């Protein structure tokens, strides 16, 4: 059997959840499990994240999956509902909505009594300069104050565009607008921290923090490693060596013959490729890890196979190769490929076998 495997370390997930608790001890934790728990598999992740106060997802289908698995915590739909017919399901299944435009407010008001009777909060989204979703100042103040007057329980919600950047001017504008609205609508609960903001601005934790990437043990920052943040990688992605080749100087390897050997070398072919979610780009040299030793990729990544240099490594057929995990960090693979860990994790394909570590 082809041995492309994704191992999920539930203890690492719990460790990272505890890191959130240390960093934001007074806030409730909305664990972000959208996109199949950032590609990790929502079922196994929920089991490890069961002590979260709530969960956050991007759409109703993702929320219903959580309910079907038997979890009863509050769930927030971070983009709200997409059509009127979703409102009744949301109410029946006790799922909370973000509202970010007028039509969603109309849908909500049409179901006001049932929504409130279920004890559901409304997350009102502030657009403070990211310019994706939300009401701007001062409109949002009117929206919130009228929702409150109608009997809704509101949470002021906001998302930073540059929480991962030091001294970015928009950060101050976003924070100031959030605080301004929070004061104008007081008393109101607040939520504006993703992983990066949880690390950077403890004073902005407020009522609910929304950690995503940090739970999975990847870094939200370009310039800080998971070790520096005291986080543990949750996913280990491995495959096996299925063939060995000795090539001579002048011989090429793989599609496009992009690599030409300068001297005799030993290659190993590993059964992994972009069909599994392994990235093909690598504008910078990419590496894998074999028993703690890093070794370079050779030539192009194909759909099902890669070649690696094992000239100086004893690695017979059947040797397990770590594509990313605790030795070769997903953040470093992402960097070599001109992307971020988030993307590599989320776009894991369904092909590798999933196992618990
Ligand atoms: C995805 C998401 C988060 C989590 O962001 P991370 O950077 O992964 O921590 C938080 N809030 C909202 C609204 C999101 O969409």
Automatic annotation (TrEMBL):
Pfam families: Ala_racemase_C (PF00842), Ala_racemase_N (PF01168). Its EC number is 5.1.1.1. It catalyses: L-alanine = D-alanine. Keywords: Isomerase, Pyridoxal phosphate. The active site is at residues 34, 255. One of its GO terms (molecular function) is alanine racemase activity. Coiled coil: none annotated. Its cofactor is pyridoxal 5'-phosphate. It comes from the Bacteria. The modification N6-(pyridoxal phosphate)lysine is found at residue 34. One of its GO terms (biological process) is D-alanine biosynthetic process. It is an enzyme of class 5 (isomerase). Pathway: Amino-acid biosynthesis; D-alanine biosynthesis; D-alanine from L-alanine: step 1/1. The keyword NAD does not apply. SUPFAM superfamilies: Alanine racemase C-terminal domain-like (SSF50621), PLP-binding barrel (SSF51419). SMART domains: Ala_racemase_C. InterPro entries: Ala_racemase (IPR000821), Ala_racemase/Decarboxylase_C (IPR009006), Ala_racemase_C (IPR011079), Ala_racemase_N (IPR001608), PLP-binding_barrel (IPR029066). One of its GO terms (cellular component) is cytosol. Residues 234-357 form the Alanine racemase C-terminal domain. Belongs to the alanine racemase family. HAMAP family: Ala_racemase. This is Alanine racemase.
């Amino acid at each position: 059997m082809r041995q492309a495997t994704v191992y999920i370390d539930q203890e690492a997930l719990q460790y990272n959840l505890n890191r959130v608790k240390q960093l934001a001890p007074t806030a409730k934790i909305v664990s972000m499990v959208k996109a199949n728990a950032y590609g990790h598999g929502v079922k196994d992740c929920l089991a490890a994240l069961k002590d979260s106060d709530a969960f956050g997802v991007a759409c109703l289908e993702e929320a219903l999956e959580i309910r079907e698995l038997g979890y009863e915590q509050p769930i927030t739909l971070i983009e709200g509902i997409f059509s009127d017919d979703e409102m009744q399901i949301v109410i029946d299944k006790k799922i909370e909505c973000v509202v970010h435009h007028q039509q969603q407010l109309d849908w909500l008001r049409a179901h006001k009594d049932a929504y409130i009777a279920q004890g559901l909060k409304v997350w009102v989204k502030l657009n403070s300069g990211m310019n994706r979703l939300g009401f701007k100042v001062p409109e949002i103040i009117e929206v919130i104050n009228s929702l409150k007057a109608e009997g809704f329980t509101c949470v002021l919600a906001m998302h930073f565009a540059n929480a991962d950047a030091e001294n970015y001017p928009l950060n101050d504008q976003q924070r100031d607008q959030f605080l301004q609205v929070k004061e104008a609508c007081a008393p109101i609960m607040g939520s504006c921290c993703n992983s990066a903001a949880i690390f950077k601005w403890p004073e902005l934790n407020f009522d609910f923090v929304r950690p995503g990437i940090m739970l999975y043990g990847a870094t939200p920052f370009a310039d800080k490693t998971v070790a520096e943040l005291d986080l543990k990688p949750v996913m280990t992605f491995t495959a096996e060596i299925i063939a060995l080749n000795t090539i001579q100087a002048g011989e090429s390897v793989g599609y496009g013959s992009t690599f030409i050997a300068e001297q005799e070398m030993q290659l190993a072919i590993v059964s992994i490729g972009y069909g599994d979610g392994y990235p093909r780009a690598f504008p910078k040299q990419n590496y894998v890890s074999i028993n703690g030793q890093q070794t370079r990729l050779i030539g192009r990544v194909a759909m099902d196979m890669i070649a690696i240099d094992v000239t100086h490594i004893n690695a017979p057929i059947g040797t397990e190769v770590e594509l990313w995990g605790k030795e070769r960090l997903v953040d470093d693979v992402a960097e070599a490929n001109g992307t971020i860990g988030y993307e590599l994790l989320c776009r894991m394909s369904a092909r590798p076998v999933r196992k618990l570590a």
